[in-house]
Amino acid sequence: MLRIDDADGVRTVTLDRPERRNALPPDLLDALEDAVADPPEPVVHLRGAGDAFCAGADLDAVSDVAVAVADGGDTDAAAAFAEQGQRVARTIADSSAVVLAGVDGAARGGGVELALACDLRVATDDATFAETGVTFGLLGAWGGTLRLPRIVGEGNAMDLALSGRSIDAEAALRMGLVSRVVERPAMVARDLAANDHAALAELKPLMRDRGADADREERETSAFATLVERNAEALRRD
């Protein structure tokens, strides 16, 4: 489900579930965390196989959480699922490498949130983005409420999160969700790796400011768990 290739200063990490549009079950999240935490290369290129970047959380996994809540009142399961995604997003943000999201195809929900955690986001003309949580009675609980307004501004973030609408690559570029629209994201990763590796390692933590992130993540987890409890029957997939 995860392919890793190390070459020429770039670790290419490919979400490889094209039949599920690279949706993320818990075991794939764990594998992704391991792949990006402390890689041997100075640059990581995160991409998706097939025609999607990442469809977000696997709906079967969300259903399993909903079943646990509906049948046993286990709200801890919902909180744990949110916290796992947040932990992976933090690992991306805190990785020793510069992490580039190369979005070619659809990024939805948790897929957008993983891209937001990356240091850079570039898109192809085929890329689309949507924070779809609200359409399921949920919210982006993998750092979406934290990073989206920081990156695109509060007004754009409210629009995307409250509507669940999809935007194309050019709209994403205009609002700053991506920094470039390119034909081959892999070439951007290669260009980054051509720079001085020590300088890259020093620049990244200086450009990051995680000041109040922990409090926001805790509030996000609580809100997600509450919504899963409220919508558990609708979310379960028996």
TrEMBL record:
Q: What SUPFAM superfamilies does the database record attribute to this sequence?
A: ClpP/crotonase
Q: Which Gene3D superfamilies match?
A: 2-enoyl-CoA Hydratase, Chain A, domain 1
Domain of life where this protein originates:
Archaea
Q: CDD domains, per this entry?
A: crotonase-like
Checking Pfam families in the record gives: ECH_1
The record ties this protein, via InterPro entries, to:
ClpP/crotonase-like_dom_sf, Enoyl-CoA_hyd/isom_CS, Enoyl-CoA_hydra/iso
Q: Which family does it belong to?
A: Belongs to the enoyl-CoA hydratase/isomerase family.
Please state what the protein is called: Enoyl-CoA hydratase/isomerase family protein
